[in-house]
Amino acid sequence: MRFSPALALILVIGIVACAGDESTERDAESVADCCAVTIRATVPEGTGTLYISGSLPELGPWDPAGLALIGDGTERVAHVHAPQGTDFEYKFTLGRWDNEALGPDGLVPDNHRILVDGQLEASHQITSFKDPIRWIEDVEGSGVLGTLVYWPDFESGILEHDRHVEIWLPPG
Questions:
Q1: Which residues contact 52 (CB under 8 A, 6 or more apart)?
Q2: What architecture is domain 35-129?
Q3: pLDDT tens digits for range 69-106
């Protein structure tokens, strides 16, 4: 069968257009299935490596040194990907739960939570981190009421890493 040059050109354009449609459909499915979430944190000057730990596989999950944020000044950023509709939680640490980020009130805040609904960005201001060694050196100044017994670097045959053990005995 012989085609005229005009018909051949129409066939080639149609084939390319169809291939482009399939590619566009795949790209649309990828965007619908996966979304980028940017998490920014502003930290005090001199803060070491900041980690984000959370319920997504790429955040640990819940490993206190799950994913290191990028940046070494006061501005840090992490990029994570999750399917549309994913609801995940996270916290910031300096690599250990003993050094978890504190809220403006000086207390450990609830988990941060994001419902993935397209491309998102979340920003956080971190003013300080837990410092259990300060509790040993200045129990009265730590705000702890009662007695705090503290064993740093407690060795365990069961747990993977040494842990700081804190025992709080309420007043009386």
A1: 39, 59, 66, 67, 69, 78, 90, 91, 92
A2: Sandwich (2.60)
A3: 999 889 999 999 999 999 999 999 999 888 899 988 88
